[in-house]
Amino acid sequence: MTAAQALCTRTPTTCEARTRLYRDGELVTEGFPVQDIARHLAEDGTTVWLDLLDPGSDDLAVLSEEFGLHPLAVEDAVDDRQRPKLDHYDSHLFLNAYAVRLDTGTGELSTSEVAAFVTKRALITVRKDDRMHLDALVERWDQTADQAVHGVSWLLHGLLDHVVDGHFAAVEVLDDSIEELEDVLFDDAPQSKEVQRRSFALRKSLVQLRRVVLPMREVLNSLLRRDMHVLDDAMVPYYQDVYDHVLRVSEWTESLRDLVSTVLETNLTMQGNRLNEVMKKLTSWAAIIAIPTAVTGFFGQNVPYPGFQQESGLIVSVVLIVAIAGGLYLGFRRKGWL
After folding, report:
1. Does residue 287 share a domain with residue 204?
2. How far apart are CA 74 and CA 225, in angstroms?
3. Residue 310 is part of which domain span?
4. Element (H, E) at 148
5. What pTM did the predictor assign?
6. Number of domains the chain is built from
7. How far apart are CA 150 and CA 21, in angstroms?
8. Which residues, other chains included, contact 289 with Cβ-Cβ below 8 Å and sequence gap of 6+?
9. Cα 119 from chain centroid?
10. β-strand 85-88 against 93-102: which pairing, if any?
11. What is the rounded distance in angstroms from the CA atom of residue 281 to the CA atom of residue 94?
């Protein structure tokens, strides 16, 4: 029994597999049994794609015998939360990246880790969960089927382009969310608590996105190095395009992080300004209210004074209260305190 046959002895729920076979740039078949991979690779001009969903260490150990995979790469493919990277080994490359998805309602970013073994005639993708949907990736390959003649370079480009486009879509949604947050920030009705909650949620998502985006520059840069002889020359411009997208997402992410910080600082400043306005109004009204208290207290003395126990005294006290309080009110209004 071959190593690929041994792999297939595991139950489908433990190791779900998906396969595709290309020959001389044409799609020949897909969904074929994993045990047929070795036979197909023995044929000239064939390229194979194999996808494994949440495989165990035993699954990948068997694959390492079939494809000559390095034990360290197999270990990284099994372990969770590896950083995005590209490792070079004698017989293959090992790639680790993250597909992302943003919840537009909550602003929460979810990531899906995907590893890939890149050999001369096979691309083996390892997904840690099913949140990265393969239908969009397969559709991308079908749309660029005229480039299938470039084999693994073309398959790998489709995978990277799909992942980076997901990063681009996420940062676009985050940008729109921050613009909506700015509108809420300057709304006539203060919503400081809502602004703070959404700001922290967006900032958290941007930090997560930055962690998976920034290392992708190094990954693409390594693939584009001519001395590595990894890519077909015809595919280099397409990888350069993906690299440009990575740079744009990286710069966009950095600018949005600064913008969210500015929103938080502006919100705190506006809170301080509103508090100052409230304090000025309270102080102004306290000064106005103090006038009747002072005047009535003076005229309430139980010692004789001009107008004591006379109607004229009442009139004078009322006139003083109205005049002084009115003068203070007009003065505060003129200064914008009321």
Report:
1. no
2. 24
3. 275-335
4. none
5. 0.77
6. 2
7. 13
8. none
9. 31
10. antiparallel
11. 66
Count the neighbouring beta carbons within 10 Å of the beta carbon of residue 240: 13
Q: Of 270, 286, 319, which residue constitutes the final position of a domain?
A: 270
Per-residue pLDDT tens, the chain, 338 aa: give them: 444 444 444 433 356 889 999 999 899 999 888 888 888 888 888 999 999 988 877 777 777 777 888 888 888 888 888 889 999 988 889 999 999 988 877 778 899 999 999 998 999 999 988 888 889 999 999 999 999 999 999 999 999 999 999 999 999 999 888 888 888 777 766 677 777 888 888 888 898 999 999 999 999 998 888 766 677 888 999 999 999 999 999 999 999 888 888 887 887 777 777 777 778 787 887 877 787 777 776 666 666 667 666 677 778 778 887 888 888 788 777 777 66
Phi, psi of 243 (to 5 degrees): -60, -40
Residue 80 corresponds to which amino acid?
Answer: D
What tokens were used for 273?
Answer: 């300004």
